[in-house]
Amino acid sequence: MKLAIDHKSPIPLHIQAEQLLRELIKDPAYQAGKLLPNEVELAKKLAISRTTLRQAINKLVYEELLIRKKGFGTKVAHSRISSKSMNWLSFSQEMKARGINVKNYELHVSWVFPDESTASFFDIGTDKKIVKMERLRGSSDSPFVYFISYFHPRIGLTGEEDFKRPLYEMLEDEYSTIANLSKEEISALEANKFIAGKLEIETGSPVLFRKRFVYDQGERPMEYNLGYYKAESFVYTVESRRT
């Protein structure tokens, strides 16, 4: 794409720069994560001041089309995935309803001894092994969430189940266990080295952290879930209705 500004045009320079940037970021290379040209170089190429260029960039940052990180550069912002708190679907079903094909990057199932908090939620001892499932999931472009789920031994999981199926659908079909109630805690934290590696972000980057306590139709604890969401790719919305 040819980058040029018409200095004789009545259209303000920052508007022309904004229009150029809007076309530039459609390039597949930038959509894939390539950094935009350096501000100094781009301003020089367009023969405009950095202040004028920044005015254009700031507009696209405000519209959440670009992400700018100090000392790193500017890149295209991927559309954020939205999850609603009142949505009682599995993650796969919820994303499918939004037209998003979820890709499993990693899937690990193991038997582990629960820590104190998990054992307390399940009301079992820390000496009794339970099934742990870890899944790294995302779009076709990149992973955006890392899940860790622990399941109550009462369900009867063997660890050999097809966890590629929608989770709650599988539990209902194979174990007559219906997820009926979810209680959640949402907070923000900085990604440690392990989580950063999974989500392909820098250590210390912001992460949306969600704890989910799931109960069956008898309001007995059945799943304890931890979710680490890439902040730049995910937004969590809360919907309330007065009755």
Structural class: alpha+beta
Helical fraction equals 25-40%
Spatial extent as radius of gyration: 23 Å
Q: What value does the average pLDDT take?
A: 85
Distance between the termini: 55 Å
Residue fraction in strands: 25-35%
Global morphology: elongated
In the predicted model, the low-confidence regions spanning at least 5 consecutive residues are: none
Strand order in space, largest sheet: 4-5-6-9-8-7
Number of helices: 8
Taking the sheet with the most strands, its summary is: 6 strands, antiparallel
How does this structure look, described?
- By secondary structure, this protein is α+β, with helices and mostly antiparallel strands.
- It has a six-stranded antiparallel beta sheet with strand order 4-5-6-9-8-7. The protein has a two-stranded antiparallel ribbon with strand order 1-2.
- Helices cover 28% and strands 32% of the residues.
- The chain is built from eight helices and ten strands.
- Helix 1 packs across helix 4 and helix 3 crosses helix 4.
- The mean pLDDT is 85.
- Strand 1 and strand 2 form a beta hairpin.
- The termini are far apart.
